[in-house]
């Protein structure tokens, strides 16, 4: 019987191992999800109104933070994990989460008349004897105007409240308001006796180690803050906060937003459980509770919010059934930016649902 040459056996074994390892590297759930993100990002950037996009995905034990395009036209400077974005109205979900904590702490009650917490008289904050309550502030059913009548300063804000005219029954009509969340932030500040931004840090940012999420940036952080563009590729200014920050004002990074997703995927957290309650069914295909827009698709419930500001827009979506969250951020803002980013995020999620994940995959695999 002829002996099989050992060197041939060894070569075949090495070759076989190389092929197997290559298959493992390119075929892992992490790599498949990364490919899904890259494909959708590149397709998005074919629309030249978009210049860059950052996408963070949390799926089971895997964390992916990926970046594409350029932050400044013609400079080729791609965003990265240290890039700071304005998350705009996604800030409202932090307000809602904190309000849920206040309810659990019995600092406030959902049916409280908001005038209980105001130092001046506001007989106008009712309709047919029915007052505006905490729940109305949280669900955009207060009858308050979209933007504060006076918003240049906190004292001005309270003067503007006196000019609000509520023209229909409170609690029955959904009308998006950037006024109500500012009043809610003030109420939280008052009942805890602590500045609102400190409360956000104490109950949300600190415990979840979100050290790059903040209202005020230092000089070094301002250098990492995204500068956005409108639909005509004109540079747009960053937002400057004058009020409490219940409506808008937080800055964050993709890595911190994944920590926020993980918080809201923690079904054992009482604050999260409370913040996911559903209070009002809108006529637009979603419900609303503590500022989360809640979509129900069969037994699948999705918590999400959009944020848009002068030169950037983003979506944050939480999928508890699939143990998944996604944040998509871009330095572009024009009429249909939100709809386009929403479609891209949903497409990524749908494709990820098809990916079989391995419990053995290493956690916290982030990519600069």
Give the terminus-to-terminus CA distance.
Answer: 57 Å
Number of β-strand runs: 14
- Label the overall shape: globular
CATH topology of one domain: Beta-lactamase
CATH architecture of one domain: 3-Layer(aba) Sandwich
The SS-based structural class is alpha+beta
State the helicity in percent bands. Answer: 25-40%
Low-confidence stretches: 1-25, 357-368
Full CATH superfamily name of one domain: DD-peptidase/beta-lactamase superfamily
Largest sheet properties: 8 strands, antiparallel
Top-tier CATH class of one domain: Alpha Beta
The sequence of SSEs as H and E is HHEEEHEEHHHHHEEHHEEEEEEEH
Average of per-residue pLDDT values: 91
Strand order of the largest sheet: 2-1-13-12-11-10-9-8
Range of strand content: 15-25%
The gyration radius over C-alpha positions equals 24 Å
Number of H/I helices: 11
Q: Which key terms come to mind for this protein?
A:
disordered N terminus, alpha+beta, disordered C terminus, 368 residues, Beta-lactamase, 18% strand, globular, 11 helices, two-stranded antiparallel ribbon
Structural commentary:
- The protein contains 11 helices and 14 strands.
- It is α+β, with helices and mostly antiparallel strands.
- The chain has a domain at 34-112 and 196-353: Beta-lactamase, CATH 3.40.710.10.
- The chain has an 8-stranded antiparallel beta sheet, sandwiched between helices. Strands 3-7 form a two-stranded antiparallel sheet.
- Helix 2 (29-44) runs antiparallel to helix 11, helix 3 (91-104) crosses helix 6 (180-192) and helix 3 packs across helix 7 (196-205).
- The longest helix has 22 residues, at 6-27.
- It is globular.
- 41% of the residues are buried.
- Mean pLDDT is 91; it is low at 1-25 and 357-368.
């Amino acid at each position: 019987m002829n002996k099989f040459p050992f060197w041939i056996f060894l070569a075949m074994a090495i070759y076989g191992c190389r092929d197997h390892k290559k298959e493992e590297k390119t075929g892992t759930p992490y790599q498949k999800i990364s490919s899904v993100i890259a494909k959708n990002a590149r397709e998005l950037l074919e629309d030249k109104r978009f210049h860059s996009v950052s996408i963070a995905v949390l799926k089971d034990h895997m964390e992916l933070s990926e970046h594409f395009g350029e932050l400044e036209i013609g400079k080729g400077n791609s965003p990265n994990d240290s890039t700071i974005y304005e998350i705009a109205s996604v800030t409202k979900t932090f307000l809602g989460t904190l309000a849920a904590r206040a309810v659990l702490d019995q600092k406030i009650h959902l049916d409280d008349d908001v005038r209980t917490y105001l130092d001046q008289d506001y007989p106008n904050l009712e309709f047919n004897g029915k007052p505006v309550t905490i729940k109305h502030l949280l669900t955009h059913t207060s009858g308050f105007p979209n933007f504060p009548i006076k918003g240049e300063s906190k004292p001005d804000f309270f003067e503007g409240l006196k000019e609000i005219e509520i023209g229909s029954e409170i609690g029955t009509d959904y009308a998006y308001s950037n006024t109500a969340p500012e009043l809610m932030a003030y109420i939280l500040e008052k009942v805890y006796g602590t500045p609102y931004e400190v409360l956000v840090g104490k109950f949300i940012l600190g415990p979840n180690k979100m050290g790059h999420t903040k209202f005020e940036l230092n000089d070094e952080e301002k250098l990492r803050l995204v500068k956005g563009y409108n639909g005509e590729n004109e540079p747009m200014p960053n937002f400057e906060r004058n009020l409490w920050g219940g409506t808008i004002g937080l800055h964050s990074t993709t890595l911190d937003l994944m920590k926020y997703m993980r918080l809201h995927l923690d079904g054992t957290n009482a604050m999260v459980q409370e913040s996911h309650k559903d209070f009002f069914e809108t006529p637009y295909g979603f419900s609303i509770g503590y500022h989360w827009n809640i979509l129900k698709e069969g037994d699948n419930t999705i918590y999400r919010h959009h944020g848009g500001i002068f030169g950037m827009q983003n979506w944050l979506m939480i999928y508890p059934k699939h143990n998944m969250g996604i944040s998509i951020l871009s330095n572009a803002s024009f009429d249909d930016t939100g709809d386009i980013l929403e479609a891209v995020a949903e497409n990524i999620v749908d494709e990820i649902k098809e990916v079989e994940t391995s419990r053995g995959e290493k956690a916290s695999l982030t990519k600069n």
